[in-house]
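Narrative progress, year one. The postdoctoral researcher (J.K.) led the effort to move from monomer predictions toward full complexes, under supervision of the PI. The following entry was the first complex the group processed end to end, covering 871 residues in total.
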Amino acid sequence: MRSLKDEVAIIGMGCSKFGERWDAGAGDLAIESAYEAYEDAGVGPEDIQACWVGQMYAPVGGLGGSTIADTLKLTNIPIIRNENWCIAGHVALIEAAIAVAAGLYDTVMAIGVEKLKDTGYPGLGTGRGMSPVYEARRTAPGSFALIARRYFEEYGLSMEEGKETIGKIEVKNHRNGSMSPKAHFQNVVTLEQVINAPIIAYPLGLFDCCGNSDGSACAIITRADMAKSFRRDPIYIKGFGIAMDAILPHMRPDFGWTSFEALKTSSRKAYEMAGIKNPREEIDVAEVHDCFSITELIIYEDLGFSKHGKAKEDIDSGFFHLEGGLPVNPDGGLKCFGHPVGASGLRMTYEIYKQLQGKADLPERQIKDVHRGLSHTFGGPPQISALAILGNEKG
Amino acid sequence: MVGITSFGAYIPIYRLSRDIIANSWDRGSLKGERSVANNDEDSVTMAVEAGSDCLKGLDSKKVDGLFFATSNAPYKEKLSAGLIATVLDLPEELITSDYANSLRAGTAALRGAVDTVKAGSASSLLVTAADCRLAYPRSDQEQWFGDGSAAFSIGTDKVIATIETSSSINKDIMDVWRNEDDQYVKVGESRFILNEGYMASMKEVISSILQKSGKKASDITKLVLPSPDYRTHTTLAKMLGFDPNAQLQDTLLGSVGHCGVAHPLMLLVAALESSNPGDTILMASYGDGAEALLFHVTEEITKIKPQRGIKKYLQSKMMLTSYEKFLSFRGQLEPVPAEPFRTFPSASAYWREQNSILRCHGSRCKKCGRSIFPVQRICFNCRSKDEYEEIRYAEEVGNIFTFSIDRLAGRSDDPVVVQTVFDIDDGARFYLSMTDCYPETVNIGQQVEFTFRRIYEGAGFHNYFWKCRPLRDGGI
């Protein structure tokens, strides 16, 4: 197997305003992110030779690439849509990178878009079961709460300790989100507010859950050796990984519910390609899938940022704060952006791309001395995980 | 010798104090409490419960017939007995029939089963009866009615009660009825239906069976009579020379209510639970005439495996505290709709997967022994293809591995969904909603059992599947 480290670069990115975008359809959101990306890269639609789309439901599934072709008027090129749950944006990015590395195209687009607010989904609860019988009442909060309940049990955290530990993650993300003009929620919250919020799926409360919102993000990708002809600060793809577990975790015999093979395998693959031995030390900034507070906690552990069962220590010490050893979700994460499913992976990648260029939208949020960044999504029941590791120089 | 070889019963966990109903309408209370089928229960699911209670200790593969009696089948056209038999995992070669439309349907099914076995058409027949009748809000019946079920196995092997004599009286009378489109039971003028209906028919049928069998009232150990109220059966018993205190079986009216078609059969179960060898039981049921059966209890009654029956299901209960919730359980009051389902059932998929969905089968790999639910063609563990045997899990007990209490997933009339992940001893893992529980008491390690429920309406048919509940044996 060949490593694709430094073979492909991102030369332009765009990200729409996220939120309840009653003013914009899926097409408007795609236009918002794509035209920012064109401008950033200094290209136009005529330069795009192929396009990969991450779009899960919205407005509906089963429409193929037509939604993007019709909107962006990208004609007579391959447009490939994937509906790989919450990681669809990452899959679009990674598949686009692979095609460029294979030498098939010079300049391609990866775009994620989701218009949840046209589907009647309420503020919370995207992700119903796949089977009308076996999973008739499955929701995302209900499923991820299964992780929290088990994690507290496994590591001997009382309900108070557990709620406080995951609550601190949300206090951090909201603080970051308050400095994020494109975020859906830009409010600061206190630990007390988080802990006392109404319960959505015990033990997860309102602030432990990300909301449903609309949004789109887009990347223009080219060969690494051509990248500097577009801009002086292209961002290189260092490594990536995708992995999917077999069988709904709920029915998987012996499954422990505190750690996911897909998280471990996908990150190991990405680290190997990027040549990263110790992610805790070598990653300077990360955007990870905080669909629920507990998810961010187990990701710390499965991605190797913290030891298993020890995330609490790093959370308590502020290790993942903007000023900490490894800032996580500096833009506020899914918690503040909401989770327009297919768009999230590219939205996270947009933040890493901007951080690595030193161009975070507000200077208060810019992390100093960053060279390696990671973006990550985790999705499905949950079952599937994807990562991309980016860097601002080759090597 | 043909007779009852086993019995079982079921009473839903919810009870509603009649005072709550009475207070809601500012009217008199009939005192005591009634059973209420949960919003995921109906006649079919309750028949499954009683049937499964009855089948404990029997070989279900030897059952060759199932009759079901109810006045409230979930389908106007479609065999309920067939669905119940599938859920109980009975063999496909099976005699099946639904008995319906009259309060006498339960005893008719019982007698039909006896005759079928006597005629040699079947050797082991399961009779199930269940009802959850709807009464007009504010009516007496709303307070009187209860929901429940009973089941009997009829056969020739190890008979615990032989059926000595039977008698049947036909009388056409407008006493209780429902027209084609009626949701609620209509009831005639009370003096008329008591005197010319219940009293007249029951007197005639009991006199008839005593005469046929050559027995006197004093020869009867227990007289089993469903009653339209607290008193009438006592008057009837006295009139026929019985001693109500010594001979009358409790009617369950104060604790459960009148369970329609299932009621006489539930009372018979209660009578058998406290019977001794040599006892003679006279059961009569009323409805468009009357029917009576005379049983002789044998030595075998001392050897049967314990069922939950009426005794245990009566003890384990949860009090429903709101009249509105009671109305919403049967759809009499329509609360604001919950978020719609986004994945719709398919009749063909439901049919194709019925071994998992209805029979509760998982698969066990013949190569590596890994068990899993639902049935998987490729082993999760060793990936061997199509090399598995199917295992039924419905009678197993599980231990909760993790759970959540979801306030987002439920219906508006049942807003809290307890999602559980639990393990069976052989390693199979289940993900099911928990029903009949106090969510705040659920915990990791808690034991749960399977219960068959109606999970929702979709694609134009009722969707049934399994849930779990805290063990009801011994009460909650």
